[in-house]
Amino acid sequence: MSEESQGPARTLGGYLAAVRSDRGLTLRQVEEQTGKEVSNAYLSQLENDKVKQPSPNILHALSAIYGIDYIGLMERAGYLNAQQSPTVHKRHGRAATFADIDLSNDEEAELLRFLKFMRSEKKQ
Question: In b/e form, how buried is each residue of 104-120, taking b as 16+ CB within 10 angstroms?
Fold first, then answer.
């Protein structure tokens, strides 16, 4: 796969956009679920990489809504690197199929993109 096709998933914004899409949430729904802590306009800027390093509070709110690892988001935002993480965390998907697989951030984002594609094909 070309570097260009993997580009957006490598960013925090691309990852968050893929996860939100996978969860079937709109920007406004995320805003409501975070108690307006994360506005839909701010989330849009974040997903489009206009905001590169949101506050840890924003990342915490999004990790709770999306059911994803907060430390992983802190790493993606550049606050931590893998060696600085307070605990070694094992990544896993929500599905039992991926429970024993230690997916990289890029692999997880690629799976989310593929899942989105498959779901769009089913709707047609």
Answer: eeeebbbbbbeeeeeee
For residues 93 and 2, the answer to whether their CB atoms sit within 8 Å is: no
Q: Is 15 left (phi over 0), alpha (psi -120 to 50) or beta?
A: alpha
Full DSSP string of 93-117: -SSGGGTT----HHHHHHHHHHHHH
Structure tokens at 88: 């070694």
| Token pair belonging to 13 | 């914004």
Task: Indicate the CATH number for domain 3-123.
Answer: 1.10.260.40
In degrees, rounded to 5, the angle at the alpha carbon of residue 95 between the alpha carbons of residues 60 and 53 is 25
pTM for the whole structure: 0.64
pLDDT digits (tens, 9 = 90+) for 56-87: 999 999 999 999 988 889 989 998 886 655 55
Domain map (residue ranges) of the chain = 3-123
